[in-house]
Amino acid sequence: METVNKVDMVTFEILRHRLEEVVAEMYHTIVHVSGNPTLYEAGDHQEAIMDVHGNTVMSGGGVTEWTTCLEGGTKYLIDLFQENPGFRDGEQWLHNYSYGAAVHGLDVQVHSPVFWEGRHIAWVVTAGHQADVGGPFPGSMSGSARDVYAEGLLLKGLRFAGEGGKVNRDVEESLRALLHAPDAVMLGLYASIAANNIARSRLDECIRRYGLETLLLFFEQIHEHSEKLLKAKLRSIPDGIWSAEQF
Hints:
By secondary structure, the chain is α+β, with helices and mostly antiparallel strands. The chain has six helices and six strands. The chain is globular, with a radius of gyration of 19 Å.
């Protein structure tokens, strides 16, 4: 359904470019903070901004195949935990459950709800290939694994940092005890938190300048804009029969 109230096109383009840069800043924050070469050298990570329902507003230029996985992971958390325990400002939730949208166990997603004056308005999300997630083998990858339980931790949604953004010490120490490379993993997770916090502060700046309702209208409008671009691209493909398989 097309949005009735619209952001004027000048403001729309300003916000579109601004949020593109916010996601780019998230990407570079992970590069600068993380000590994991898979993240800062190989670029095996992705960042995004979601609306309050978990729909993608802006995704980065990292591992683009993760775009739908980050959205799916956010919606998975919402479905499981919206009612109990609910979400609070500043929290950072870990998710790496492949049956709940993560690519595989090593690609740990970090989701943070964004609030404005007590109202939940958005999510910021990062995901990166961590050095290890436990299991019987260092690096958590083995061709001899007979089931998913041999691939390390399965985190359907774990509140790593509580309200206000303070990391839960009990959670961190419990995770450390289950990892082969705890220092490397924790540095990677802290890098994701830093990236999410950058995005949270930038969204705060956008609201203060343009207003909350303008930003929320933009969230709706960008979906329509993306749909029009996709349809235009599809119309440019010559007539024919096309197929693809992916596993």
